[in-house]
Predict the structure.
Amino acid sequence: MSEKQKFYIDTFGCQMNVHDSEKIAGVMNDYGYSLTNDPKEADLIIYNTCSIRQKAEQKFYSELGRVKSYKKRNPSLKIAVAGCIAQQQGKEIFRRAPHVDIVFGPQNIHLLPDLIKNRQKVAANHDNQLIAEHDLPAMRNSGCKAWVSIMYGCDNFCSYCIVPYTRGRERSRPSENILREIKELAEKGFKEVTLLGQNVNSYTSDTDFPGLLRMINRLNGIERIRFVTSHPRDLSDALMSAISELEKVCECLHLPMQTGSTRVLGLMNRGYTYNEYRKKVVKLKDLTPDMSITTDIIAGFPGETEDDHKQSVDALREIEFDGIFAFKYSPRPGTVASDMEGQLDEKTKSARLAEILDVQDSITLKTNNKINNTIQEILVEGPSETDESMLTGRTRTNKVVNFKGDKDLTGNIINLKITEVKRHSFTGVIL
Ligand code: 5AD
Ligand code: SF4
């Protein structure tokens, strides 16, 4: 019998892409290929790409240049480009990188085995209306936490964002399929699920998002439920109540604010004012006092004045997020904002980003300190990547805690006392 063909995947970008790579791996595994961690021995190299900011795109193209020489060594090697750049640029990728054989978008993962059989170069970046109905097998790495897609695409068209163009229209999976997948995960020993969607809380099929959370909360074996990413406009009272009432739904929410300036929020087409955002955060914390809230901020959106920027900084001080992800505005071709007047220079954007990160640093430390010396429930994920002698896990609020303990605890939920607060993690002792 001939040896199995091997594939290698390099993943860029967000959790959505990480999970898409699990699906690509699942599809290829079913097709008879085996996964390798060494691109040099692969018969198929797949790049799962991200186009959210220019930097991610540049990183991919420089990586792609590097594998050109592999083809000389192995002429039958196929190179495939998946993900958001594939969707957006399609055949154009063949022109920029003639050593690429296959291009397929996030909606066409199921086609990969057919695309491989094709002798000619092929680009599959068409819309797939059935994406939410057709489930793909996912090859998951970790044994206790799993990503589960519940909806695909985004209809919001925030003026800076490429996602509605790369991921297509919003489509939600039927609840029955989601529940079936999560039940199977529970049977395999998974304890935590993170529900995924570009705009996860606008989920709507035979039930709405709070309804779906209530259904998942009833499943035996699953102990923790998380979800990303939520849009502030779709954060309803019903969802806030569900978060506070359902014992398995964790006390943490990633709620991208983008800017503290209501004027800029308008230019961004976000659909809420700063005050509306702030009021929702206050309500959330009233209902669920331990709630950890994180956000995304864009620095230097076109037309952002010094005063708008100051409003973002003031908002960080007022809201006191547990953590933020902040980015310099990056013009994406085809989006409304990329053609707006008032594009700022790199220096201004960098300076504003630096100030935002600096201000948030001390706020993060302050919010982190609030849980020092408290007892926290941890899902043990296994040995720490940076220090083999330590185990690592996360609190319900999604904070990373390192501690000494037996490897056999992996996959268990235990109680810890937090003994040290660091910049990006905590140290604890088992009780
Ligand atoms: N430039 C900078 N940041 C962006 N984001 C999305 N598009 C852009 C862009 N063009 C950020 C937003 C979003 C996060 C995933 O990436 O903050 O919430
Ligand atoms: Fe992009 Fe806005 Fe959709 Fe998020 S909600 S993916 S920022 S368009």
In short: The longest helix spans residues 346-369.
